[in-house]
Input
Amino acid sequence: MRTARFGIILFCLIAAIAGLGFSRAKKRSLPPVPRRVIDLSTAITPDLPVRFWGHKALSNLGFADTTEFRLVQGDTPLYYSNAYWTLFNHGGTHVDAPNHMQRGAKGVDAYALESLVGPIRLLDFRGHAQDKPIELSEITALGVQPGEIVLLHVGYKPPSGPDELPSFGYLSKEAAEYLAALPVKALGTDGLSVDSFMRVNRLAADGAKGYETLLPVHHAFLPRGIPVIEGLVNLDALLGESNAAFVGFPLKVPDGDGSPIRAAALLY
Output
């Protein structure tokens, strides 16, 4: 009788331990779910290039103001809808690849997806003078850590007239080299570019040439394989948030020099 009771007790104890282990294993298997997801991407529309760049910048580089969205629809033997999109891969929210500015460098498909996921460090430079560099001292004072995805909030506003060039704050060469050498995991901005259009025009007019001279911020990051993300939106929603992760994956285009991304911030 005692043996039977002991067997029952032992069985119940083993079952309880097994159940506890199963419960813990089940709990551990659940990934953390963000309390909120912020969309950081602009809408892709036929007029996106001119809406985001303005006419003058596009015209100066020989780019079209619009892109084509062509629907192919039918009703037989049932309704269907497909589309051909002719996208401008550096319009709106996108990531640059190393071969964007360097012949023979790696394309956007070579980025490890892990390089586009990471903790956000938002740097608020909305009050910074337009078209003036953000200096090294301004960046070092903020305590950016290696492995962070740095997002520059410069408060970009697209050109309002056909003869106006885009204007926004941008990193100085020294500030860019500092962040790239840490290294940060990626650099993003809500500006049209991480380099200044006005600066490029001034230097080119004076006869300057070359990647490192004309586009020093791109040159600091892309040859090191650090993604450069441009054209983000909704960065205001990240102000005051201390625990947020960035995610934004490009289209898998072999040797593509850049790609639109659906960027988002996961708030925890």
About this structure: The CA atoms of residues 50 and 65 lie 5 Å apart. The chain has a mean pLDDT of 92. The chain has eight helices and 13 strands.
